Amino acid sequence: MKIEIFKSKIHRVRVTEADLNYIGSITIDETLMEAANFIEGEKVQIVNVNNGERIETYIIKGKRDSGVICLNGPAARRVAVGDVVIIIGYATMDFEEAKSFKPSIVFPNPETNRIE
């Protein structure tokens, strides 16, 4: 049996940009992506701490060490620059494997979006 489990999380980062005219997705600083074990194109859920919105989209790699967190396309309407969000990834795996799996969780400074 396969189940979907929590795989990765960037906990509480600040939205630095919102670009309505982009084709869609979330741009994430490459350093944060690597720390959380995310890859470009991966489906993620964005939880907006400020307003409770939940958005599903995919990741675009942002400039390393830039601190960029940019919601693009229609998702830009669900956030405001300065909002704090949580970015969550899930994985499908075998039930027995899932029992011992340990997710990657990153706690960056929400003022700088950097791991300190």
Strand order of the largest sheet: 2-6-3-5-4-7-1-8
The CATH architecture would be: Beta Barrel
| Total domain modules | 1
What is the N-to-C succession of helices and strands?
EEEHEEEEHE
> Which parts are unreliable, with pLDDT below 50 for 5 consecutive residues or more?
none
Here the CATH topology equals Barwin-like endoglucanases
Give the terminus-to-terminus CA distance.
39 Å
Rough outline:
globular
Average pLDDT works out at 97
Regarding quaternary structure, what we see is single chain
Binned, the helix content reads 10-25%
Described by strand count, sense and barrel closure, the largest sheet is: 8 strands, mixed
Total beta-strand segments: 8
Overall description:
With 116 residues, the protein is mainly β. The chain has one domain (2-106): Barwin-like endoglucanases (Beta Barrel). It is built from 2 helices and 8 strands, in the order E-E-E-H-E-E-E-E-H-E. It has helices at residues 30-35, 95-100, and strands at 2-14, 17-19, 25-29, 43-48, 54-62, 69-72, 84-94, 104-106. The chain has an 8-stranded mixed beta sheet with strand order 2-6-3-5-4-7-1-8. The longest helix has 6 residues, at 30-35. The protein is globular, with a radius of gyration of 14 Å. The N and C termini lie far apart (39 Å). The model has no long low-confidence stretch (mean pLDDT 97).
What is the fold's blueprint, element by element?
Blueprint: E1 2-14, E2 17-19, E3 25-29, H1 30-35, E4 43-48, E5 54-62, E6 69-72, E7 84-94, H2 95-100, E8 104-106
